[in-house]
Amino acid sequence: MKFELRAPSYISWIPGKITDWKLWKPAIRCAIVGWICWVLLLIIPVERKLGQASFFIMVVSIINPPSDPLAVFIEKTLGIFLFVGIGWAWGAIAYAIAISVRSGVEPLDAIARESDRFPGLQSSDPASFLQQSVFDGVYLETKSSAVMATFLGVGVAIMTYLRGKLAPSFGQPTASILACIVMDVIMTYGALIPTYDAVLANVFVIPMLMYTGVAILGSALIFPETVQEQYCTRYISLLSQMKTIMEEQPKMLAATPGTEEWNEWNKLKGQREGLGTGYQSLDVSGSNLKREVTWGRFSHDDLTDLQDGVRKLIVRIGGMAYFHRTVSEWLERKTLAEESRASSRAPSQVGSRAPSPTREESETRPDPADHRLSTPNIDTPKAYQNGNHLDQSESHLDPSDSQLDLPPGSQLDVPREDIRRRSLSHINLRRLLNETFGDSLLSPSESISIDESGRSIPRGRKRKEHDHHWFPWHSDHDSPRLHGPTPVGVFESMRYISVHARFLVPGEMEDVEKMHALLAEAAGPLLEVCAEALGSTEKFFDAVIHNKWWKFHQRKTMAARMKADLQKKKDIKEKLTRALESYKTTDRLRPVERYRHRALTPHTPYRGLFFVSIYSFHLVDFATSLLAMLEEVLDVEEKRSKCKLWWPTITLSGFLGGGGRSDPNELDDEDPETIEGLQLFSEPAEARDPDSEAPSNIFYYYGGKVQRGISGMFRRGDAFFAAKAGIITVVVAMPQYVQSTASFYYYHRGLWAIIMAQLTLQRWAGDTIIQWVWRIIATFCGAAIGTTLWYISSGSSQGNAFGLAAVGAVVLPFIFFLRLNSPYIVMYVLFCVTIFLVLGYSRQDGVGGFSTVNSGWGWDVGWRRFVLVVIGITVAAIFALIPPETSRHSVRRTVSKSIEGLGSVHAELLSYAGRTHSGADTIIIDDLVRINVKLRAYLTSRISGAEYEPTLEGKWPAEKYRKLQTTLLELSDLLGQLMTVYWRIGQTHIDQRWREGLVLRTRFLQPTFIGETMAIYYILATALKTAAPLPQILPTPLVDRAFDKRYGLRVPQGSDPDAKRSHFDTDDTPTPGTPREPTSAMRDPADHPLAEKHVRLEEPAPAPSPKRMLDRQELTFDMLTDEGYMIFVTGVMTTYDMLTRLDRLVMVVRELVGEKYPIRGLDREALLADYDA
Q1: pTM of the prediction?
Q2: 375: exposed, middle or buried (C-beta count within 10 Å: 0-12, 13-18, 19+)?
Q3: Rounded to whole angstroms, what are the CA distances from 422 to 374, 452, 1106, 1138, 1165?
Q4: Helix, strand or coil for residue 292?
Q5: How many angstroms separate the Cα of 565 from the Cα of each of 303, 551, 637?
Q6: Run of H or E residues at 1080
Q7: Which domains are seen in the chain, by residue range?
């Protein structure tokens, strides 16, 4: 047995980042600023001026480090002080009211008891005696304490609510956290003091102001970075990653599919995800570009306009990963089918059938039809003997379904249902279903097999002689099932397998390998030029970074350098243009040349051609987008020839709500049912209120808004969470308002228990439990390291300023490196804060000290800090479970909202596919990006949190939700690729019959199929949101409904007289590319709501046979070389994959929510029979 020692995930990230100098620069800047603040704290006069909470200067430096560009840091700091001011004002109001309700009577008995505790102090030092009496709770009164506690709970609740609503603007969530701390100070300490002290908050505000001044100077002088530089650096990082991918593409294409070398390129998916994460950071910088004054050639708008270009490239380069995934998935299904067939074939004996076969015999008994299908015949073409007539496509594009048919009179000219049934008998359905959809479709002891008569039998159950039900678990009597859940999705599973039975047949591997080798040779030159063009764009942004105003010596040669750089980019552009045109007209056709002298019959293997078409389409699309970006860069360079000062253009609305988050790892209380930045499409459809008519006057209009707003606020989970935060604060602060415990609470710094309870409490119980674990680990490690550093610097003394300064200089760079770069931001913030709380308190008590509070130093501070944190976070963990707002519900609602959002994008894509357009739909792209961010960042953290939640209901199906997440991300990418397909196929140089052929082949714009698809989106979203079961029978698998009809596709040739005829003639003569006898979805196209579409919406007649519907035309070599055919193939395959993901969503959701409305006694023939659309 092999044992491996693996570091925990919260440590294992360090080796991969510690050698990156770019990550050290902001860490060093923050470390120098932090060290200056630490030295100020060590100077006793300065420490006295900072006040009793002088150590807070280090806490703020860790919570709000100057790691961002100066403009962003100043904006964030202004938001922090705004909210701190609001918290201060709220506390001052509470303080004033609390003073006004005091009785004004001196507590003589309490003062006498205090005098007995400190004999002689009252007469010798009245000021010290008064201070001691105040913090011992002598002047506490019930009325004033009640006012303070009420205002504290309400104030914290409001700040907690705003923290989730306003992030990331106004410096959130840091601003709300610091505002809560200020209110904690005023309304806990204020209750002890019998007189009004309006500046009580200075105990924290003064250290914050001191730190802010040092941080602003540090940001301006130490490794200064502008937003423009940050933007360009992140842009260069994305271009560099894409350049690496393009340089590695020839190696991927040179690998033989199915080999270990080929499987190594599964990393393309991770590289694509890395580009998406990098773009999020770029988007943050882009949103902040207009917030600073810059000097240079290019304005803020010039650079933000270029952001759209890299976004398109990231979307396009995903096609490379899609190509690899498509080939790999086909190989997996092919291998699975071959293994299943090999395991199911056994020698058959001639004779009477055994009366009662065993389970093993029934699983391996061959179908008699097997012998007939596998026996060669002199009249049967060789392609039929090896099954190639069934293996024309992955269902991505099946020539036999689109243009070609089996020759009449063949020995295999049998009914389609018989072929399907016999094909099914060779396949291990359970294994294939598990590979495609996952487990839980059947109970662990069952799988499906199909007997010789074609009847489906669940293995592990005895076959009943007179059972007329399609599966025994649909029988009329109920029996308890203690061994596992009731099987779900059997209907879809069987139909899904019946569709794939035609495609999971070996025979084209050799063709795929040959076409793959030809593709590698053909695509090499264009890939090389694309990498060179990406490098040229990198140099452009690098020049923007290094064009500084103080480099006067470069001004004389600037014009010559600009001219030379511009000429180089023009040369690259021309080179890319030539390479792209050469690939489209010549190189792309090299693999296709294999078909020039071959008979293009139903028996010809086309799968390799389909894969080549996919890659060629995405490569051409990427090169085209790269060329467009190069043109934009050239336009900007030609337009801006001189450097100038560019002023910020900040609007009030942009300042209030447009701030970008500077720390992408920061955890907010985000609403699971809100996708930030998701845009609404302009459409006539709108939701209605079933409880009221549309408002008939202005009173009803605004009254309804107010009513819905108030009722919605109380129904929302974030309002309830804010109330819980207020309550927990009052509960933890309660000892401070009780005279018998006030002294103990104050002297042992119970304030930090309040702060930790506030910071630990999260909206979702799972997050609170995770943070409880993280904070225990972080506080223990921080207290241990802080105590160790204290004794290293000071030994057995009460503090050595020089030793502490030296220790700070050594450890601060590493502390800030961990703080800035750790993916576990909350854990490392608390770790770093604990270190300096131990050192700061020890320094204050040992040397500078305040007489009222002295906890000691070193070990005494360390263990007290740990205990306080444990108390605070434990109370938060308990409150998180009373009552719990579970992350499990959050995950369900997030997935539901994401499905709903993708449904809206799909609907808009349908509109996009049917109208003329000059470019990609930016709203669709933006929405897909936003949904991806929600799924990748937010949902990942929610799923991780849900796994920590305690439950009495059973294990939470985390893997199923991860499967939903993965499927939704793939569906999102496929929708984006499909939009690109319809953009390209709608261009003017592509004959529009290809587009019509695409929508007819995929039924993409057929009204009945649109209704079925949109219904699936809505049903899935609603089922997950409400936890309602799905109907047992749904219009799925969608892939079956999309590809169950055969359409003719007559593509115009150069000599075709119809080629120049208007595609939308109004006469009755059917146009090429359409079925000959369709039933129009709308007799008058003008009556259709989408009448402006340029694709006729048509559906096949329900009754006529396929032969009457087909527009027969043999596939020609000229058609294969047409660019429209390449896009057509990609569109069909992408549509197939998109529908497969939707079907997979249905299956996984069934596993989660179950089924209802069972249909009993359903005949198997009805199960597997084709049904009309």
Answers
A1: 0.77
A2: exposed
A3: 12, 8, 22, 28, 14
A4: coil
A5: 18, 18, 9
A6: strand 1078-1080
A7: 11-103+141-224+720-880 (no CATH), 227-291+296-328+508-547+564-643 (1.20.58.220), 887-1058+1068-1168 (no CATH)
In 3D space, the residue among 966, 1137, 178, 1019 whose CA is nearest the CA of residue 610 turns out to be 1137
pLDDT digits (tens, 9 = 90+) for 38-91: 999 888 888 888 888 888 899 999 999 998 898 889 988 998 999 999 999 999
Three-state secondary structure of 627-691: HHHHHHHHHHHHHCCCCEEECCCCCHHHHHHCCCCCCCCCCCCCCCCCCCCCCCCCCCCCCCCCC
Query: DSSP alpha helices (H): ranges in 350-480?
Result: 359-364, 368-374, 382-385, 399-402, 416-424, 429-436
Cα gap 443→465, rounded to integer Å: 23
Reported as a single tens digit per residue, the pLDDT across 121-143 is: 777 878 888 888 888 888 888 89
- Helix, strand, coil tally for the chain in percent (to 5): 65, 0, 35
Structure tokens at 443: 């109970």
Lowest mean pLDDT among 8-12, 628-632, 1067-1071: 1067-1071
Tokens of 650: 């900040």
pLDDT at res. 631: 92
**Contact status, residue 210 vs residue 232, Cβ threshold 8 Å:** no
Find tokens 């309002």 and name the residue. 719
Whether the Cβ atoms of residue 586 and residue 288 lie closer than 8 Å to each other: no
What pLDDT score was predicted for residue 93? 93
Q: Which run of H or E residues covers position 1155?
A: strand 1155-1156
% residues pLDDT > 90 (the chain): 17
CA–CA gap between residue 1006 and residue 824 (Å, rounded): 49
Structural contact between residues 90 and 151, judged by C-beta atoms closer than 8 angstroms:
yes
Per-residue pLDDT tens over the stretch 886-942: 778 888 888 999 999 899 889 888 888 877 666 666 778 778 888 888 888 788 878
The answer to whether the CB of 729 falls within 8 A of the CB of 753 is no
Distances (CA, A) of 14 to 11, 24, 85, 574: 6, 12, 38, 44
Q: Which amino acid is at 408?
A: P
Are the beta carbons of 300 and 229 closer than 8 angstroms?
no
**Tokens standing for 493?**
């599973």
3-state secondary structure of 405: coil
How far is it, in rounded angstroms, from Cα 363 to Cα 357? 10
Identify the CA nearest to 419 among candidates 334, 333, 502, 507. Answer: 502
Q: Which residues pair with 1098 in a beta bridge?
A: 1080
> Hey, CA dihedral for 733, 739, 741, 747, is it positive or negative?
positive
